[in-house]
Amino acid sequence: xxxRQMCIRDSFKPxxxxxxxxxxxxxxxxxxxxxxxxxxxxxxxxxxxxxPGPEAALAHVFGATCVNDxxxxxxxxxxxxxxxxxGFDTFCPVGPCIATGLDLGRxxxxxxxxxxxxxxGSTEQLVFSVAHLVWYVSQVMTLLPGDIISTGTPxxxxxxxxxxxxxxxxxxxxxxxxxVTEG
Length: 183
Prior knowledge:
Blueprint: E1 18-19, E2 25-27, E3 34-36, E4 38-44, E5 61-68, E6 71-72, H1 73-78, H2 83-86, E7 92-99, E8 108-113, E9 116-122, H3 130-140, E10 148-150, E11 158-159, E12 165-170, E13 174-182
Parallel strand pairs: 1-7, 2-13
Antiparallel strand pairs: 3-6, 3-11, 4-5, 4-10, 5-7, 8-9, 8-12, 12-13
């Protein structure tokens, strides 16, 4: 299995999308199917703009965190650009901490809903390495300290409903858990 890579069609998440551990993911009933996506989040520690190559990228990384790239799947399929489907308030749970000193090329990533494993993979399966992703994004925009790049998700994404608890576990980082509510 290979994880999806970040691509030019992926979107920005607005600040209102970001929530922490234990905070609710609000499921808008009119948005149709809403899916969980367990991902490694790469936290930028030093400004990075037009880096000369992937070999320079990791020097700009502070650490790693868990990200749930929550997506309104029906809107994503309908829209040409993914921003609306991924940009709802609360659609970017992040945490529970930022871990430093990890080999980001070898992290197990697990997604669970109500304790049931739905996704399991490794960053070794990414189509593009973390270094390549940071370099690539730096060619388009200046990355600032605190920016987070979501790296891609293992197969098995699926729907979440009000009443569920969505979890993302990244080896060496911990587990991010968020309840899903109607909203």
